[in-house]
Design brief:
The protein is 33% helix and 26% strand. By secondary structure, it is an alpha+beta fold.
């Protein structure tokens, strides 16, 4: 029984630690088919920052269950109830701490100056395979609602012809 409880807890921690976060090469399923406004900018500065992840409470619940199960093996009679309660409390605290530790991560704060002269700051997850953008580098700033992402733009042209079939009048 204890091995099953340990297996459930390890499985939860593995899943929580593997949750993918949006970065340069990772999009959420909610982003598919959504248009984004794209501006161009230059990176002014970059610094590493800590990002506090979301604690959903699942870790505390799983920990309480595991702790209560483990506590049920201790004592008998009224002592068993106290052991279950104590195990549940300890498990909840440990589970919540484990979930928070798995959710916390490192990211980067980019200070950018856009083509219109506006300076903005965007904090972004840095996933495996993402390239750290350097000061002076030309980048794209994608905006969808209140969400913004910074992407490299080195391979994109700086000037293009107006698409055919489009007439813009001033």
């Amino acid at each position: 029984m204890q091995s099953k409880i340990a297996l459930v807890l390890c499985g939860f921690l593995a899943v929580a630690g593997c949750a993918a976060q949006d970065g340069q090469n990772q999009y959420s399923y909610k982003d598919v088919g959504q248009s984004t406004l794209t501006d161009f900018a230059t990176v002014i500065s970059v610094r590493e920052v800590g990002i506090t992840g979301e604690n959903t409470g699942v870790g505390g619940l799983v920990g309480a269950g595991v702790g209560a199960g483990a506590g049920s093996y201790a004592g008998s009679g009224s002592g068993e109830a106290w052991a279950i309660a104590g195990g549940a409390l300890a498990g909840a605290i440990i589970g919540a701490a484990a979930e928070q530790a798995a959710a916390d991560r490192t990211g980067y704060e980019y200070v950018l100056t856009k083509e219109n002269g506006q300076t903005i700051t965007i904090v972004q997850n840095q996933n495996k395979g993402d390239r750290l953008l350097a000061p002076g580098e030309r980048v794209m700033v994608q905006t969808s609602g209140s969400y913004q992402r910074v992407l490299p733009a080195a391979g994109l042209p700086t000037q293009i012809k107006r698409p055919e079939g489009i007439k813009v009048t001033d």
